[in-house]
Design goal:
Elements (H helix, E strand, L loop, with lengths): L2 H15 L1 H8 L8 H11 L9 E5 L14 E6 L8 E2 L15 E3 L10 H11 L5 E10 H12 L10 H15 L3 H9 L5 E3 L8 E9 L5
Parallel strand pairs: 1-2, 1-4, 2-3
Antiparallel strand pairs: 5-6, 5-7
Amino acid sequence: MDRSLEVKSNRLSKTLEGDDYLRERLYPRASSYLYLHLVDLREALDFYRTSEKISILDYGCGGSPYRDLFPNSEYIRADFTPCEGLDLLLPADSSIPVSDNTFDMVLSTQVLEHVPESVNYVAECFRVLKAGFRIRGAKKLTCGPRALCFIINQWMWRLRAPKSSLFGFAVWGIRGLWRFDRTWLNRCADKYFKKYGIVDAEAPDSNAYIALLMHAERPALE
């Protein structure tokens, strides 16, 4: 591996396994600029938490922040980055070195947008799931005005303009709200736009959203 790539990989591994990273995803803080999306994702995953003894592939696991939601599972961790305690190190084409029909669940969060072969990645999800699984529904996360609040939190500190300009002065003034209270916009979104956190994909007026949660399950036997 190229030395510069190895250094970047090691840094990424340390970030993904760090206590701050794991804690932020399992217990999102309102002071975080990622809060709205992370809290919606955490609540959506609560629908699937279980104490049953099932086999799970955490595909693109990082530090496996949601592992505690499945305490009795056979939990297999796979990633492209060599994290500590990894079970499977994945190649660039996303292929998983296991046979077909292996797992009861494939968990993958905040990964698809980063993989170079996204079509292969999704195909592998279905290949390793036990036979009979089908897409049953989808949820949009952090939608509409809640998504707008998330984007404002993301970009407010990245805007650059001279304070001598009208736009720059306005940005500097608005940032004062965050300097006074970093949680204010997230708290407003929770109070007024909580219903836009998890929305059925087919619902009207939900075209703007931050993430899409897909759910596949085996049909009940007739």
